[in-house]
């Protein structure tokens, strides 16, 4: 019973983290160009406990690290460093494909091809009554392990990679759905990770 309660709390916190990304998106929107991944070094990467994450200013929080640390509260055997290394590996593979001169459409297309075609990430069936209830459908470590997730889990993966690449992409919460949006202040593209990154009309 206690474990089920913790899962419910964790789901609520994960949702809050996603909303937090949307709130401080102006930090990303005004980034003039892609930075090298080697220069991505927020204080959040050095946090090892949830308490250390919570005292950081928004711009110093690393989304992936915060989620991994939170997940370890649920599963003490979980290897945070190993999962973060996988996120870094994916970001590095994307970094060499994306140029600062690329259009927003091309950037989104490159990420979508990498995630949904080459790495075969896919959405679970929204008709599943447990679609937004089961922790493994939303938790980033589970999404990475299974290559499947719901709209929250896949959006978190997209946001974690975009954050490392300094891309102006943030989370959007719509009625009964979550997706991501590219917005550099000039061009806005809605990206639906549950539909292989298609431009959603929501």
Instruction: Please work out how many helical segments DSSP would assign.
Output: 9
Shape: globular
Unreliable sequence segments:
1-11, 15-36
Structural class: mainly alpha
Overall pLDDT level: 84
SSE order: HHHHHHEHHEHEEE
Rg for CA atoms? 16 Å
Please tell me the total number of domains: 1
**Order of adjacent strands in the largest pleated sheet:** 3-4-5
The biggest sheet amounts to: 3 strands, antiparallel
Binned, the helix content reads 40-55%
Blueprint (SSEs and pairs):
Elements: H1 2-23, H2 26-29, H3 50-54, H4 63-74, H5 80-95, H6 104-118, E1 122-123, H7 135-138, H8 140-146, E2 148-149, H9 151-164, E3 169-174, E4 177-183, E5 188-191
Parallel strand pairs: 1-2
Antiparallel strand pairs: 3-4, 4-5
How would you portray this structure in words?
It holds the Pfam family Transglut_core2. The structure is a single chain. By secondary structure, the protein is mainly α. The chain has one domain (2-195). Helix content is 49%, strand content 10%. It has 9 helices and 5 strands; from the N terminus they run ααααααβααβαβββ. Strands 3-4-5 form a 3-stranded antiparallel β-sheet. A hairpin with a 2-residue loop joins strand 3 (169-174) and strand 4. Helix 1 (2-23) packs antiparallel against helix 4 and helix 8 packs across helix 9. The chain is globular.
Question: Briefly, what is this?
Answer:
α1 runs antiparallel to α4 (63-74), α5 packs across α9 (151-164) and α8 (140-146) packs across α9 (151-164). The protein contains 9 helices and 5 strands.
């Amino acid at each position: 019973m206690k474990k089920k309660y913790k899962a419910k709390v964790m789901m609520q916190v994960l949702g809050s983290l996603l909303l937090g990304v949307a709130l401080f998106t102006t930090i990303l929107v005004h980034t003039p160009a892609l930075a090298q991944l080697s220069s991505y070094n927020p204080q959040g990467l050095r946090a090892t406990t949830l308490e250390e994450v919570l005292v950081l200013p928004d711009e110093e929080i690393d989304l992936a690290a915060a989620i991994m640390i939170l997940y370890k509260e649920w599963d003490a055997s979980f290897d945070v460093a190993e999962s973060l290394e996988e996120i870094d590996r994916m970001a590095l593979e994307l970094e060499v494909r994306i140029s600062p001169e690329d259009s927003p459409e091309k950037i989104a297309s490159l990420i979508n091809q990498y995630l949904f075609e080459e790495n075969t990430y896919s959405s679970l069936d929204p008709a599943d009554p447990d679609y937004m209830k089961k922790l493994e459908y939303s938790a980033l470590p589970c999404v990475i392990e299974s290559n499947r997730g719901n709209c929250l889990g896949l959006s978190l993966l997209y946001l974690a990679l975009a954050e490392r690449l300094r891309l102006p992409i943030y989370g959007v919460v719509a009625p009964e759905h979550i997706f991501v949006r590219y917005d550099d202040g000039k061009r806005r593209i809605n990206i639906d990770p549950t539909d292989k990154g298609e431009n959603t009309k929501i």
